[in-house]
């Protein structure tokens, strides 16, 4: 017992890293044969949802003031801007010379920069259309041909986005004009809890395929990425990799040892693919996928918790399985480095009472305690000017907690072990 208490005391005094307190978790993400599914993954909870990759064709970024539109390039679809006329050519569009046209891909670093935006000249030109500063609409000025993975061709005109109502208006048809569909897509129901809303040109229907945006951190998927050939030339290829949700950050560390836990060594990156696809490589001699040696990622999830992430195997297209090891290093974005302005907590571990020593005499400081899942379990406000404040812990279970003290614009946090 004395050894356990001493170990905990060393952790919170800064003599031992908090990472020593967490155990690694082995997990598997399975995309299925041929990488047929997208898998949405939570670092805290595991697989959130597995969704067929080929059930959509185009997708619309849900932010009211965004003009971002994607093509499903990971499923093998291709997108071309029609080069032989403007929108007045809708009835005469054809595919003559399409083999010489440039195939448009989604950005592999910016979610909002979809294939339909790749011809953008910058505000107010967003590629597929131009922003109207009077009514805030984006008005389509380009025609497109979509070549589906099965080889069939569709002509497509994104006619307008009404930004005020967050509504897209578009139409599409076979090249000969048959099966023309005029669609109005209201994005408003999805703008608060989805990154994209998807659409199937084949089924003429909206596809709501993402889980709630707050429920996942990483997405295993097929997507187009810039790959450098041996000659040094860059080209787009369809790869299998890991993309980040919005507000999820990651950093890469290589080469490092298996016990490396210092996430401060490199800054976190906030773009779409700080993890990406380069953590594996196909070995032609052994004819199998190999994981890059001495590679570690650190990921800060949407809640601010920091995880260490390492890959241990990749099965390839047969089952589409990725083996990984994750380890929780920090809860609720608590900085492991000591802060000169932070309050003091004692005793720690605590039994029924804990003393909080504030940096100066102050009242109306908010004191809140969170459990490991980030749930608020206790909240109090100081009512007298006192440097020491005592909190009753009798109703809290044994375990690890975060104490947060907020006064004005300043917020500080400390870890606390409760052990009755």
Please tell me what the overall shape is. globular
- Give the mean pLDDT: 89
Nearest-angstrom radius of gyration? 26 Å
Strand composition percent: 35-45%
Name the quaternary structure. Answer: single chain
Major sheet:
7 strands, antiparallel
Q: What is the count of β-strands?
A: 29
SSE order, as H and E? HEEEEEEEEEEEEEEEEEEEEEEEEEEEEE
Provide the low-confidence segments as ranges: 1-21, 333-341
Number of domains: 3
Distance between the termini: 12 Å
Structural class: mainly beta
Secondary structure tally, helices? 1
Helix content: under 10%
Draw up the topology in text.
Elements: H1 2-13, E1 25-30, E2 37-42, E3 46-52, E4 58-61, E5 69-71, E6 78-81, E7 129-131, E8 137-140, E9 144-147, E10 153-162, E11 167-174, E12 181-186, E13 196-200, E14 205-207, E15 218-228, E16 234-244, E17 249-253, E18 280-283, E19 288-291, E20 296-300, E21 306-314, E22 321-330, E23 344-346, E24 353-357, E25 366-370, E26 376-381, E27 388-392, E28 399-407, E29 410-418
